Amino acid sequence: MTTQHTATASVATTAAPRYAKQLASHLGRRSEIRYLGHSENEHASQTGHASENEHAGQTGHASENEHAGQTGNENDNSDIAIVLTVGECRLHSTPESLELTATANSEDDLHTVTRVIGSHLERFGQRNELTVDWKR
């Protein structure tokens, strides 16, 4: 049996749903995204075509306008799971914060998940000085 490694972060923002959707939209090009309702039975998935390692080296910046038109089953009350090849991160929006829970099968893989998710969120929230401080 493999031990699951976990890290959490609480990112203070009143725009949590917007940042969660932006992360899902951007990373969804290369990863699986699951929109989870209040029940595990309520979800929709979309799958990208490349690994997060390919994505981690990407330096391009997507504009907020690219993410604004996303449609589907997502809504402000849904949790979002971003599934990378080495682990996943669940995003939960509250009125005051975006709650992140990253999981992976090894510390190295957990580091990759937290680095990919954290660096993108900080870049998207640079204007609002968002910081992601992971706790293990």
Care to describe what's here?
This protein is α+β, with helices and mostly antiparallel strands and 136 residues long. It has one domain: TATA-Binding Protein (2-Layer Sandwich), CATH 3.30.310. The chain has helices spanning 16-27, 52-56, 64-68, 107-124; strands at residues 5-12, 32-36, 43-46, 79-84, 87-93, 97-104. The longest helix has 18 residues, at 107-124. Mean pLDDT is 80; it is low at 39-43 and 48-74.
How is this structure best summarized?
By secondary structure, the protein is of the alpha+beta class. Helices cover 29% and strands 28% of the residues.
Map the helices and strands:
Blueprint: E1 5-12, H1 16-27, E2 32-36, E3 43-46, H2 52-56, H3 64-68, E4 79-84, E5 87-93, E6 97-104, H4 107-124
Antiparallel strand pairs: 1-6, 2-3, 2-4, 4-5, 5-6
The level of helicity is: 25-40%
Kindly give the count of domains.
1
CATH-assigned homologous superfamily: Alpha-D-phosphohexomutase, C-terminal domain
The residue ranges in which pLDDT falls below 50 over 5 or more consecutive positions are: 39-43, 48-74
Shape: globular
The helix-and-strand class reads alpha+beta
Which key phrases capture this entry?
6 strands; about 140 residues; TATA-Binding Protein; alpha+beta; six-stranded antiparallel sheet
